[in-house]
Amino acid sequence: MTKKDKRLFSFQDIFIGLLFLVFSISYCQESTKIDSLKRLIEKYKSNQKNTLLDSSKVILFNQLSEAYIESNPIEASKFAMEALALSNKIHYKNGSLMSFSIIGRINNNTGDFTIAIENINKVLAQKETIKNKTFLGDNHFYLAQSYLFLNNFPEALKNLNTALQLFEKLNDKLRIARIYNNIAILYGKQDRYDKELSYYNLALATIKNENSKKANRLKDIINSNIALIYNDKGEHDKALKILLNSYINRDKNSNPNNYALICRSLGSTYLSLKNYDKAIEFFEKSLKIYSETGNKSGLGDVYRELGKVYFQKKNNQKAIELTEKGLSFSSQIGELESIKFGHENLAKIYSQSGNYKKAFENQLLYKKYSDSMFNGEINNKMNQLQMNFEFERKQEMLQLEQKQKDEKQVNEAKKQKILFSIIALSLFFVSILAVGIYVNLKQHQKQKRIVEKQKEVIQNSLTEKETLLREIHHRVKNNLQIISSLLNMQSHDIDDEKILATIQEGQSRVQAMSLIHQNLYQSEHVNKVDVENYLKELAAYLSKMYRGDSDEILVAINTKGLQFDFDTAIPLGLIVNELVSNAYKHAFKDSIKGNIWIEIQALNDVDYELKVSNNGNKLPLDFDIAKSKSLGLKLVTILSKQLRGSFKNETTNSKTVCVVVFKDLKAFQSLEV
């Protein structure tokens, strides 16, 4: 589909390849490239003293195979196999990979999609060693095409997204647009027309300012695909105008399969307009090209469409003959969508002919293939793949931003390190000076002034350190607020309630950690968190998130003036966040009014007990925390263990109570010492 990128090969191969290019240009223009390459091969074969490197011969065979790939698949396959045989003989890995890639593309064009997948996977099995990202992306694209024809939508989408990521990094707009076009086709096969049209428009927007021959050919293909949507919507005149424009302005030297596709689309449009003579004329043009290129997929589709023409002309015998011929081609290559439509057409034809048994049999087969293509599991898998892809792209952007921030922080840390070194060095010399003065000077007054000076320096150092700690807490709080804002912005574009709930849960966890740093920043003691004040702010935030301005659910907090250090406060805050969030989401899911109680009491100097209770909906009698699939409850269990404690739930007649027994980590660690 695209020219070979020379960067796949060594510098020596590139140099020799360029010599071939110059040599071929000296013979003729691009229109006679095949003749030039064939002359080079004949010259190589006839020269017994030929000094051409074997690896360069492989490149030459692969170039000739690529030149034939669209017009003569038999010749293309012959030269690719010669290149592969020579590559294996001389153990030329890059040559083998290029040959497998070309053979896979030939299989795609002839409709042998399973074989295409097998050959392209031989290339991608070595993907870790392939440095040429364009070559790698192209092969993911070719693999996606094979899966797309076989209606394996999840695998097709996965490989298209992989190729898209590679080409986005290379800013290759033409290849990006080509991928968007295939994603549109994928959604069109699933009758998801809104998504299909949006990706076609995205493809056109991507190459809007590109005016190369390849770009213009791709624009014609995309516009032809859009025309088929207009056909499906019954706007046949609008579709015909677009297709005739592509047909008239086509590049005669372009891909013959693309030209055949335009002819087929025109035939389908004329069929919809009941202009049967024109429909037959363009279908036969398309058949001629597909026969020459050996494209079984195209032959299957066109024979089936011709069958529809004769069905509408009431010639049922010929309609059956042509439709079954098309079905035979589609069955050979396992193209499910075409097989499905073939059986649908046969059911209609046999029904009109009065052969109701055959009609019923074909209707059952149509339903069987239709059900295999469209099911919720496939849609869910595709949606998950697309969500993962979008998430990874956003993660890359965030990682880039974070990298820039980290570099800035590293520079600031270096400055701070120098400052600390100066302070430490200064303290060291002051200490030496103080000892010297103490030993050598007996005058009490001088000794007192020296000690006071030392205290002043130390106090200044401590003040600077405390200020630095406050600044660190302030910056961490700001960074967490940025993350929370990003999650909030992301949630605006999401309609799926489950995904939105997941993002809100993540946002509440970030907010729980942010409030800890805010309390430390504002506290008189930078290493102690006022638990009651912190929990009030957290509860207010969760109430706002889940119930808006409603105050029908009352939250009571009793912590008896407790304070914890940072290491204990963070997991404790996350535990409370999960338990209170669960109460809002599940206990009060169908209730307007209710109460939530949060209580922490000391069991001794080290152990504490947290109780989060509510009087909403009760947990099921057989509820088992250990078997729960809830991420929130799993997180509570993990955090409880982190605090050297345990988590359990109790259900009374009036309340559901979650109990977490935990340790003050700082007090516990002091006992261990």
TrEMBL record:
The keyword Kinase applies. Its EC number is 2.7.13.3. This is histidine kinase. Residues 441-471 form a coiled coil. The lineage of its organism: Bacteria, Pseudomonadati, Bacteroidota, Flavobacteriia, Flavobacteriales. Pfam families: HATPase_c, HisKA_2, TPR_12. Keywords: ATP-binding, Coiled coil, Kinase, Membrane, Nucleotide-binding, Phosphoprotein, TPR repeat, Transferase, Transmembrane, Transmembrane helix. Gene3D superfamilies: Histidine kinase-like ATPase, C-terminal domain, PAS domain, Tetratricopeptide repeat domain.
